[in-house]
Amino acid sequence: MSMPEKVPYRNPGDFTKYLNLALTYRIQMKRLSVIIPMFNVEPYVEKCLRSLEAQDIPGNDFEIICINDGSPDNSRGVVIRLQKEFDNIVLIDQENQGVSRARNNGINAASGKYLLFIDPDDFVDRDSFAGILKTSDDNEAQVSFLGFTFLNEDGTVRERILNENLASKIYPGNQAYFLARGDGNTDPDRMCAVLYSTDFLKKNKLFYLADVPYLEDGELIARILGLAERCVFDCHSFYQRTTRPGSATNSGLFHSEKATKGFVKAAGNLKKFQTEQDLNEMQIEFFNQPIVKFVLLAINSSMGWSSVRKFIVTVRALRKLTLRKVKLQGCNWEYRFYGSIYNFSPYVVAMALFIYPRINRIYVTRLSGKGA
What we know:
- 45% of the residues lie in helices and 14% in strands.
- It has 372 residues and is α/β, with parallel strands linked by helices.
- The strands form two sheets. Strands 3-2-1-4-9-6-10 form a seven-stranded mixed sheet, sandwiched between helices.
- It is globular.
- The relative contact order is 0.10.
């Protein structure tokens, strides 16, 4: 990880001044750290950054940490140019390691009381930071679900979700997880449009699991909400989520071998977390659904007439993780139904997932944040 990059100094005096400013900047406790992973997003990242700067709290109260994930385009150059205009933008360079490691590096570097993840092709409402921070402060929230809007490619509104009926109350994470699903048409398994207590994440070592290249948010948010005791819903408009052709959630990644192995790894990690953490009975039961989810994702991802071997390998991998049978207590009806079929036979559930297109919509389209 490289040092934060700023405007090049022109003489030794400038260097000393820069060093003192940098030390003061990093030591000072910020109210908010915004983390942005960047890879091939040159056309979008400036709009994202300018939306973050058009806010109702002072610039020195928050930091914007841009992680350049070895991007081959000029995303890095855009950030360097904007650093000359704004003092609170930090640039971290890394070799291409994927979005999960990029965000983990951002978490480690963050000095804010709260963390906000944003994708570089999304943006936020102007003058909205003060409100979301006040809601979290007033409720001592560990997790705050923020209002968000899904936009079509042409910028028109596809869906707006503000959760107004859930405001003004504190929920445990295992309850907030299901409440965030609303009518089931959208999925809460997203790290964006959610405000997190930095101290809560770091103390509980809640970081992204490496080598889960698709739907990686779902594995981490399950661990976060499995432990969280104070979750709130902020019912104001805040996050604008775009749809971009070529992004991971709109690619053919779902049926790749990497994705399949990632789903298996996620299921195994959640089961290990469920077993090894000091959890109460309700928290233990909560983890059953995300475990079933990733088992079914692994099965669905591995299917295809030309990849019978991949399917068999996946079933064997799940068996090695003692996931040949899954527990269904606490799962909603849909996961109980398909989980029951899986427990009877992974081959039968594979046929069910293959035959019924609706299931593909549930486990592919809806589970991908931007495809919701």
